[in-house]
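Handout, section B. The chain below has 352 residues.
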Amino acid sequence: MNVFLVGTGLIGSTLLTQIRENQSRLKAEGVELSVCGIANAERMLLDANGIALDRWQERLAQDGISLDLAAYISASGSWRMPRSVFVDCTASQDVADAYCSIARTGAAIVAANKKAQSGSLDAYETLWKTLHETRTSFLYETNVGAALPVISALKDLLVTGDRVEKIEAILSGTLSYIFNTYSDSRSPFSDIVREAKEKGYTEPDPRDDLSGLDVARKAVILAREIGQKISVEDIARAPLLSDTCMSAGSVDDFFSALESMNAEWEEKKQSAKSRGSVLRYIATIDQSGARISLEEVNQTHAFYSLSGSDNIVAFTTARYCDTPLVIKGPGAGAQVTAGGVFADILKTGYRV
């Protein structure tokens, strides 16, 4: 299997480390995995003989050339014997827009990038039409829930004829951490958000997480899996922050504005606590569409006992009608996300 990676950030670089650490074992098991291409936003490196992964940074810097995405895609298709896998560990719209071109080369596609699956409905439908016409393998487990088997479990339900009635999910490791921590803390809400930022759980601007946009994208992906023709703008999103917070000119100004909401957040927490409940930011997908809101859940709810940055997804179906099928675990982190991408790579080839 020849791997062509785009994206050498935290997930991509961790993936290369995991491949290097497992190449010998896989070869002994009959799977020869060779990384023949590594690219980032500026440079690309191609080597039909495989790139030594103990010094890929040095080679990319010294031997790499300016990125030409079209040429990189062409190479991934040309070197497809016995199989090439194009791996997207970016958040790039340009790379996602190229998936149809990649499919036509014959290379399989593995994506951590959510843009193709959650973008415009027209582009989504065109992509899947192309994938079916070219019989291209396209795996994207890490689009929802890092390495949790959410997409694969959902596909298994559907392909065996089950009917999904409702999906409830906590889909942001960042927001899960914030609300799980806040529920048991005496610190004000703004301090919990600041702590999450300092620990690297949030984006550099926490509003990117607190806006709920990332959750909305993941909800779109799940909704489309069950046949809903839905886009991000169709999802009802109850805002977590005031307009003042969202429009603040800088991150420091945002935190100043957030501090003014501490009393409001404390009232919400104590109100929920008085009813034996905690606050959770939940995406719900059912026959009426999709929505995201801050909700109170009590001890009887599967989402009550979350900790850390765990994600959780509950499927209520015709078969799982009395007790939902629940998938729970770490929903963020370079190691687990890269591991999910690695598993998808292997699934395109000799392993099932």
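Note. Residues 126 and 285 are 24 Å apart (CA to CA). Compare this with the example in section A.
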